[in-house]
Amino acid sequence: MPAPSPDGLVSEAPAGRDGQTTGVLALGAIVVAGTRRRGLGIAFWLCVGWIGLVILLAVFAGALPLHSPDATGLGPPRVAPGGRFWLGTDDLGRDMLARLIYGARVSMIVGFSSIAIGLVVGGTLGLIAGYYKGRIGTVIMGVVDVFLAFPALVLALAIVTFLGQSLQNVVIAIGFLSIAPIARIIRSSTIAFSEREFVIAARALGARNFRIVTKEILPNVVPPTLAYALVYVAVAIVAEGGLSFLGLSVKPPTASWGGMINEGKTFLPQAPYISLLPAAVMFITVLAFNFAGDSLRTRLDPRGGAA
Amino acid sequence: MSAVGTIGRKILYLIPVLFAVTVLTFLLIKLLPGDPAVDILGPGATPAAVQEIHHQLGLDKPLPAQYVHWLGNAVHGNLGQSYQNNQSTVSALRQRLPVTIELIILSQLIAFAIAVPLALVAATKPNGLVDRLATTAAFGFLAIPDFILGVVLVFVFAVHWHVFPATGYTYLTANPVLNLKAMTLPAVTLAMASLAVYFRLLRTDLIATLQQDYIAMARSKGLSTRYIMVRHALRPSSFSLATVSGLQVGALIGGTFITESIFALPGVGSLAVQSIYSRDYLVVQGTVLVIAVGYVGINFVIDLLYTVLDPRIRRAGAIA
Amino acid sequence: MFGRARGAGDLETEVVETEPGTARMATAEASAGPLLVVDDLHVGFPTERGLVRAVDGVSFRLEHGRTLGVVGESGSGKTVLSRGVMGLLPPGAVRTGSVRFEGREIADLAPDALRDVWGAEIAMVFQDPMTSLNPVVRIGRQITEGLRHHLGMGKAEARETAVALLRSVGIPEPERRLEQYPFELSGGMRQRVTIAIAISCGPKLLLADEPTTALDVTVQAQILNLLEDKQRERFMAMVLVTHDLGVVAGRADHVAVMYAGKVVETAPTAELFAEVRMPYTEALLKSIPRTTDPSHTRLAAVGGRPPDLVDLPAGCRFAPRCPYAQPRCVAEEPPLRTDTGSGHAWACWFPVGTPEGDDALARNVRAERPQTLAAQA
């Protein structure tokens, strides 16, 4: 059921003669904007910094001088942070710092990979539906709407449970679920751009559809979509967190933030940090993605400042 | 374009979507690998026993026939039963639905009760102190996943200060006070995300509405700011809010299970989770069906309400 | 009947009020002084590029019951002027100068006190009735809320009054209209409603900001006539803002012509049309197409564009487009000088119809200045 969407999805890209130029200009605007005060302030770059830090730690976790995240009994259980174990140990004597960093790895992989799937599949569907409209468009969007009609997390739960718990399956499940919302957004964007003059001009010059879509429309759709994508990565991280909280993401003893929060919740009276540390880290990371994505979105999509 | 025509068209659109949703739910279990008969019988299942279960559950008939059979049963209120405890899915749902509904309603009440006045104040003085504080807080709350918020709330209010219970549930009819006490933390957990969304949306819409000429005209009549905000600005700004709140409620229908798990509430969400854990596939199917149909239904109702709220659409079709 | 207290010594005759304000004729003549005195009003909007000086030192006075027409093109500051007089400016706008209403300074009133003035003493009619009426509120409430707020009427009384008001502005079936929404009325009727709302609490001054611009031509005359009727009935003064000189021709007592935030010429209406002095006004007059002209007559447009209100020139603001312009005009800004005899004021070094002016024009024609040649064509 296509309910009216409250956020404006049409981007006001700078008017240019051809689609590709405006797309490049828009991307350039992001880079240049970093030196301008308005829009992307210091808060934005702080968020980018944090995200960068998390990604770096996740990627190079193996090379860092860390304790093993899975090894139990490295130290006494429930040791408070500070001292030998910088962030303490959990109930099974595992090093919290190592677990947090390896948990970051899970979150980052799931976050980016699943949205990548969504972008590729959903993006293609959205582009086609938006450009060709008519029959194809209606059919595609009908299917998309049906998927949107599903309570997403329940579907993810079911998929992961029946497929088996592994990082790959979680990525597939969440990625699969991100297709529909991404397709919708890209379709809106595409429709808005295909009605712009440079597309009509290209068509008048005899350009074939494929060329128009890839050379004119796509470069314009990409910048605002990337902004949304950042927010979706945050959603994917939260989804993975929820799944691992319920024990339905990667199998223990692999560290994952949600799982750590779940394990720690029984020890809230004695050792609250077991839950609260991963909670804080996850919160800050999700916040960073949300804020960065939102700032970019206000920059590239002036009418979309609402929820 | 009359109102009846508009509504009629929407109903017409509803039917294929509902149909597709039921088909998808039915196929949900079918498409996923794993043989439910094997799950039921456990390891060491003999082919004969598996065959028997297949026949019992009608799994050896062609797919469309199975679908029709299943749907027919569903419409008659038969969603199978749990193979674990033999409780009929429908009766389990009937027991648990009020809990989830109460949770959702409470959370929305809290969300509106805070978001609307806050947005009104924030929009009256954009970028003032209240506005900046509230907007930052809203942004923060949007980012908190419900399981984190739930755990934090339990830590602060149940463990640290013993104000609310961490788990446990009393039915509303049994003891309203205890019920509300038990529901407070979970309702607040669910409310926060909605609250943030509502606040931001309403604030943005209010600020946009306040630029309109009719607000300047209302001001020029000498009416007080408070009157103008509530009687002139709020209603035109509420359309997006109404739609989004419907979407939120719909989303919550499928999104309560984490909160229900944390606080051990016997609702529909925790039923879904438990039955997924135990691969009680009939229960999963039935629960997912109810949730999905509920979600579609709610969105449909909200769409209708939208038509009613905007008198222009109701009377004369959309005005450009 | 409407419970407004009147000073005992003001009334010279007993007058029965049938509508709010109709008793005023007697009282106004007893009270001395003009209704509205605006002195050196400046309104600016801070932007990234600097302060946009929308109204840059405007002064005028308006007597009770009289009409002042303010004419200018888009961007001349005429709309900002009416809002600035009222005080209905967006946050962030900078206003200086004095606005005295009935002898009382209202430019520095606190918001609460100002709200008591709005609606009850000074009212505004907006340009586009489609956007100035709240689309999701019924007409009835949009009329009665002012009545209940300012005049303390109860629900029933307000409703009755609203019906009477609608009838008096020429809307048929007023009871039915009360329950309707703005989109159910035609443009002309909507504007009648806004007029009804504006006059409902008996204001002494009506600020009509381009009240007919958004309406069909056929309806425009009706609305202007309606405004005039109501004005006379209630002895209201009116500031009629418009870009159309034709609108003020038969309806204003005085006309002020604005350009780039300043009043460049002002005079009693007949005097202005008879003896136009400022070249800008002359150009405006010339650009009105006349039905007596032969077909295919080229419209005499004023070439060029108004100046940037952030970056104003040192001299006369119209100089770049003026057919009469001389070097002095570019260097020095002409002050607004009044000819006390006729009450005609203008701001020009080489006014139309004066020897200096004719001379300047001739010089420019000989020098083949493009603006001059274009204007002569």
Q: What do you see in this structure?
A:
The complex is a heterotrimer of chains A (307), B (320) and C (377). Chain A has 307 residues and is mainly alpha-helical. Chain A has helices at residues 19-33, 42-59, 96-132, 134-148, 152-163, 167-194, 197-204, 209-245, 257-264, 273-300. In chain A, helix 1 (19-33) packs across helix 8, helix 2 (42-59) packs across helix 10 and helix 6 runs antiparallel to helix 8. Chain B has 320 residues and is mainly alpha-helical. Chain B starts with a helix and ends with a helix. Chain B has helices at residues 3-31, 36-41, 47-56, 63-75, 89-124, 129-143, 146-160, 176-210, 213-220, 225-253, 257-263, 268-277, 281-309, 311-316. Chain C contains 15 helices and twelve strands. Chain C is 35% helix and 20% strand. Chains in contact: A-B, B-C. Chains A and B meet through helix 4, helix 5, helix 8, helix 9 and helix 10 of A and helix 1, helix 6, helix 7, helix 8 and helix 10 of B.
Largest sheet of chain A: none
Tally the beta strands of chain A.
0
Mean pLDDT of chain A comes to 77
Number of helices of chain A: 10
Unreliable stretches of chain A: 1-20, 27-37, 302-307
Average per-residue pLDDT of chain C, rounded, comes to: 84
The strand order across the widest sheet of chain C is 6-7-8-3-9-10-12-11
Largest sheet of chain C: 8 strands, mixed
What's the CATH architecture name of the largest domain in chain A?
A: Orthogonal Bundle
Keywords:
heterotrimer; A: mainly alpha; MetI-like fold; elongated; disordered N terminus; disordered C terminus; B: 320 residues; mainly alpha; 78% helix; globular
Describe, in short, the structure shown.
Chain A has 307 residues and is mainly α. Chain A contains 10 helices and no strands. Chain A is 67% helix and 0% strand.
List the helices and strands and how they pair.
The complex is a heterotrimer of chains A (307), B (320) and C (377).
Chain A lengths: L18 H15 L8 H18 L36 H37 L1 H15 L3 H12 L3 H28 L2 H8 L4 H37 L11 H8 L8 H28 L7
Helix pairs in contact in A: 1-8, 2-3, 2-10, 3-4, 3-6, 3-8, 4-6, 5-6, 6-8, 7-8, 8-9, 8-10, 9-10
Chain B lengths: L2 H29 L4 H6 L5 H10 L6 H13 L13 H36 L4 H15 L2 H15 L15 H35 L2 H8 L4 H29 L3 H7 L4 H10 L3 H29 L1 H6 L4
Chain C lengths: L23 H7 L5 E12 L2 E13 L4 E5 L6 H9 L7 E8 L2 E2 L5 H7 L4 E4 L3 H4 L6 H12 L4 H14 L5 H5 L8 H13 L5 E5 L7 H18 L2 E6 L2 H5 L4 E6 L2 E7 H6 L4 H9 L39 H5 L5 E3 L4 E3 L8 H12 L3 H7 L1
Parallel strand pairs in C: 3-8, 3-9, 6-7, 7-8
Antiparallel strand pairs in C: 1-2, 1-4, 4-5, 9-10, 10-12, 11-12
Helix pairs in contact in C: 5-6, 6-8, 8-9
